[in-house]
Design goal:
Rossmann fold, 42% helix, 6-stranded parallel beta sheet, metal-binding, alpha/beta, 3 domains
Amino acid sequence: MDAVQAANSGHPGMPMGMADVATVLFSDYLKFDPTQPKWADRDRFVLSAGHGSMLIYSLLHLTGYARPTIEDIAHFRQLHSPCAGHPENFELAGVEATTGPLGSGLATAVGMAIAERHLNAQFGDDLVDHRTWVIAGDGCLMEGINHEAIGLAGHLNLGRLIVLWDDNKITIDGAVDLSSSEDVRARYEATGWHVVSCDGHDVADVRRALAEAVADPRPSLVACATKIGYGSPNKAGTSGVHGSALGEAEVAAAREYLGWDAAPFVIPADIAAAWKAIGAKGFQTRCEWEERLRAAPAHIHTEFERRMGGFLPDDFSLEAYIDSLIAAPQKVATRKASELTLGAINDLLPETLGGSADLTGSNNTKTKSTGPLTKDDYSGRYVYYGIREFGMACAMNGMALHGGVIPYGGTFLVFSDYMRAGIRLAALQQQRVIHVLTHDSIGLGEDGPTHQPIEHVMSMRMIPNLDVYRPADIVETAECWELALKDATGPSVLALTRQNLPQLRTQKSENLSAKGAYRLVAAGADRKVVLIATGSEVEIAVDTAKALEEQGIGADVVSMPSWAHFDAQPQSYKDDLLPHHVLRVSIEAGTTFGWERHTGIAGLRFGIDSFGASAPAEALYDHFGLTAAKIAPQIVAALNN
């Protein structure tokens, strides 16, 4: 109450209503050690109802985490305070996941639970044996992603996942029954969950319900009947306490009602000591776990620490694989190139955990070494996510946050719209999650405009800390995969073709994709034009350059698989590659919006600023003017003017 009041901003209702439930969870069930917040076998606690962030900040402080300090809490929601409006995983140890968009935290927790069972199957109970706990509100259970997440969790029988539902029957607009009359318990039961109810303000009843949830082999929903804003004599049980400070008078009235006479941000010594004792309970458990880790065979010990630390093997490299491509060039779609590359990767990296949203045969994300992960065999390395793109994205975030695995998953690029919020959260949380997004242009052909992405690559490029790769051939595809794997600080998108592309790189070199853009073809005649292209359009740029050279017009071809990597290059490199004194031309089968960044206003931009059409790929490229025969004359005309 005091923190929200000091900020005059925040959500006091949920923390007040769920305080009793959280106390039972932290004191009797949650396995954690504040002195080692990254202990690998700790329970994971996700506050999916992230607006109630003061609940987790209070719990972390009271149980003995180094931060937040009481000063941090007093500066709740202020610039540079780690106590942000919604919990951020990069701000505080003990915050397992960034939550805010309702439902995303619960869906992320599903991924954590998958990772726990997968690693348990690989390393055994001595090293991996923990639970994932979630506090979720009505909004988390109402959002569409909840349906995707719980369906997957029930199908995989993730019995170590327990969701504590703050069943307070209030949303921002008012009572839940203004907008919803569904039987939430029945919905969870229908997806294979165990469901139990309790009085969220009766400690003994909460303890009973949690004991039932722990004992049941299915994932559990614990419906905790609570009163939002519990303790506020005039606002409890109303939407008015959801997202606004109580006001000084109501805070004073609540203090009196609760018998709390300490000053703001002062915790009485006896209460502080009791909470510190709760926080200290996990110390011995953690020490015993460390003894088991030390006693494990050396190769198990080393491999477990490597994987949980997120480190690739010291000798990991795709150089030998790329050398084999140079030795035997091949013309394949980049989705197929990705599959071939993954074959090498999955043999080298046992931590990769792949999947697809029901498009395995189209995304080419499964390889020989990745058997299915099922409720009967969690050691598998391939998740059949079903038609759950958003749920897949958030589950992969949870896997990455849990540690020990590198998740990748596939769908069509156009369906990135379904999962954008999950991709954005991966970028915000700085997690290594790899999205294989195939059928990346009108080149997919006859499926038509609903399936043909236009604005999607550019919209992905707009997300901060997201590497977007659009490789031009099999070599670039391998290079981009290597870059995505070696970046442990953020997610990646690989935008890949359905149609076959020639291998344009036939000479051994360094990883040129690491520069983001490079000169693939140097002008023969006096350079007048630089053609900049990505993906399947690099082939068109090469053909266009040949047509221009035949007319005595020198043309460089620059392949630009990654805008972000190019932006990171020294200015001298960028100026040499894209000099301002020549005509710069972009070619990409998508929106031209944004390409003026590289072509300048005076440059030319060939792309598609409308929706696509249903036809074979070659007919579509001709229709939209993306052929050398149609591009070259326009370049000549521009030079002559």
